[in-house]
Design brief:
The protein has eight helices and twelve strands. By secondary structure, it is an alpha/beta fold. The structure holds calcium ion.
């Protein structure tokens, strides 16, 4: 797995690089947002570890530019602890995960590994709910002639919901399946992603497919 680490604090960057290298990741480091953007468009990385606080072009701006250019490389954002708005903004901008500083290296490695986990899908399966379809090979969703590009986490969330239409999926089950968390991070991560998914698959379409079951979780089905 090839990982791009974007962090201007040289000590932190080197610390992360060494940790990932010791786990057999190939690592490139950039200390600058503009340069990182260039590198990310020139090289196919399996994951990007992106610090929000960067001089010049900050991490959120790098992320937005990447997604605007249809680059769907999984991104793990690093943010200062307590910057909840920043994190939500990051997730809305297309980040796949985030980690608050200071973090344990073991956790960083686990998150990067989870982001980079790809392939292994034996054969193409098309999942369908109503007129929404999801191709598990191309990872594209379609509804009413519109094709949606999905980030890694959006894809995993939609796949999880579509594999059991009508079943109510609780927040913990979603955190476990989509983020590999076995604990509740105490944030609105799931809600943020549900909202993003809803904007893609339900906005402008009838009937709505993604339903909130108040206090319990979410379900995907044709009938309300
Ligand atoms: Ca920084």
């Amino acid at each position: 797995m090839r990982v791009l680490v974007v962090e201007d604090e040289k000590k932190t960057a080197s610390f992360i690089r060494k940790a990932l290298q010791s786990e057999s990741f190939a690592v490139d480091v950039s200390h600058d947002g503009g340069e990182a953007l260039l590198l990310a468009t020139q090289t196919a990385f399996d994951a990007i570890v992106l610090d929000i606080m960067l001089p010049g072009r900050d991490g959120l701006s790098v992320l937005r530019q990447l997604r605007e250019r249809k680059n769907n490389t999984p991104v793990l954002l690093l943010s200062a602890r307590g910057q909840v708005n920043e994190r939500v903004e990051g997730l809305n901008a297309g980040a796949d995960d985030y980690l608050a500083k200071p973090f344990a290296l073991a956790e960083l490695i686990a998150r990067v590994r989870s982001l980079g986990r790809r392939g292994g899908e034996p054969k193409s399966v098309i999942l369908r709910v109503g007129n929404l379809s999801l191709d598990t090979t191309t990872r594209q969703a379609q509804r009413g002639g519109t094709t949606f590009e999905l980030t890694t986490r959006e894809y995993r969330l939609l796949e999880f919901l579509m594999r059991s239409p009508g079943r109510i999926c609780g927040r913990m089950a979603i955190l476990e399946k989509v983020w590999d968390y076995d604990f509740d991070p105490g944030t609105n991560l799931v809600d943020v992603y549900i909202k993003r998914l809803r904007e893609k698959i339900d906005e402008g379409f009838e009937p709505k497919l993604l339903h909130t079951v108040r206090g319990v979780g979410y379900t995907l089905k044709e009938q309300p």
